[in-house]
Amino acid sequence: MALCYFIAAVAAVFINILAAVDALPSAILASNMQIDDVIREYFNAGYEYSNIVSLLLAYHGIRISISTLKRFLRKKKMRRRNVEISDVAIRRAIQTELNGPGSLLGYRGMWNKLRQDYGVNVARDKVMKILKEMDPTGTEMRKSNCLKRRVYRNKGPNYAWHVDGYDKLRPYGFDIHGCIDGYSRRIMWLEVGPTNKNPAVICGYYLKCVQHIGGCPQILRTDPGSENTLIAALQCTFRRNSTDQFAGDASHRYGKSVFNQRIEAWWSVLKKNYSGWWIETLKDLVEFGALDIGNDFHINCLRFCLMDIIQDELNRFVNCWNNHTIRPSKRAECPHGKPNILYLLPHENGTHDFKTVVSQDDIVWANSICKDNISKTEERSDIFFENVLQREGKHLPCNWNEAIELYLFLVG
Questions:
Q1: Where are the transmembrane segments (predicted)?
Q2: SS3 (DSSP) at 330
């Protein structure tokens, strides 16, 4: 039955195209984690005590009171106020970030980054002061006015997902693809690969997320590109038995990228905070004559050296974003707060999860029509470069500097 509906949905997708012409926190997923580690991760993410207690009950089956939680935190010496951390340690962490994509972060983003990635809990004003001293030029450059946008409305988590590709790094061999939950602004996936134009690759991102959360949204919104044919058909297939107004074919919507408001707005956040730094770094390689974007060997070398580094940076950025606090906005009828909390605890804002449960049989069947995000040609390229590293006694890079050095060695 699913196959028949899927075939019909694929046909409908192509007709619509012609007419129209992207994590629970890792602690939630790791059931074998010690409760100490789970609480520490929630604490470092900046969650309020009431949120931590609710998450422990909802996702771990652990019932404790706020007073018990406070006693635990005191015992572990985990504090958010009056924490004695030397300015030297703070400056060292900030300098580490300023040496990479973190140089684009404002003081709020830097404060959030320090708390989550370095376990440094200090006053935000102190971070602002130190950052202004260490990066006065960047501080001035980040001062800009807010963009004017239309009012956005969304009923709750998994009511609508917005999907799109990010092509700013395509000239250098990297395509980014993402999805954002419209209500909570939680990033559902953010992946980098050699292409975001292959329908099977995009389908793989979507299915990985659907399997991860156990369901799909009521509405999936994409642009009318051919790369979205499979996920559009699968979305409609997964909701074929639903009884609401967005059942079946009505559960997918096409629209131009400029009108896919949620994800388009988020791409500007990514560029401002991270990808802008990547673009400038890769442009420098071109200007210095070390990178020829028309040379397939250069592009394959760059992918081998940088792909995992970029994905790791994206994962870190998503984690920071999903745990940062969104301020109230007059341009959206959605609550403010942390995306993960808005997504995981919707009842605290008077709404509920709009997720449509997808059976394991449907997921297994759907996976059979998708493929991994790497071709046989890329597999052979990776094997070649790995053999070179083994022969030369070198290792895979762990950071941007090592990745660039390895690239220069391979093409030199």
A1: none
A2: coil
Residue 179: count other Cβ atoms within 10 Å of its Cβ.
27
Look up tokens 């990776």; give the residue: 382
Distance CA 12, CA 205 (A): 22
Burial of 139 (0-12, 13-18, 19+ CB in 10 A): middle
Q: Give the torsion through C-alpha atoms of 123, 125, 129, 135, to 10 deg.
A: 90
Contacts of 198 (CB under 8 A, 6+ apart): 227
Look at phi and psi of residue 384 and say left if phi exceeds 0, alpha if psi is from -120 to 50, else beta. alpha
Length of the chain: 412
- Indicate the pTM of the whole model: 0.73
| Percent of the chain whose predicted confidence (pLDDT) is above 90 | 49
Cα 10 to chain centroid distance, Å, stands at 28
State the Cα–Cα distance between residues 404 and 165, nearest whole angstrom. Answer: 25
How many Cβ atoms from other residues are within 10 Å of residue 103's Cβ? 17
Share of the chain above pLDDT 70, in %: 84
Q: pLDDT-based confidence at 406, cuts 50/70/90?
A: very high
Which tokens belong to 275? 């990808």
Structure tokens at 285: 């390689």
Cα–Cα distance measured from residue 33 to residue 22, given in angstroms and rounded to the nearest whole number: 25
Structure token pair of residue 330 = 């007059």
CB atoms within 10 A of CB 85: 15
Q: How many CB atoms lie within 10 A of CB 271?
A: 16
The whole-number average pLDDT for the span 85-94 is 83
Radius of gyration, alpha carbons of the chain: 23
* Maximal C-alpha separation, the chain: 64
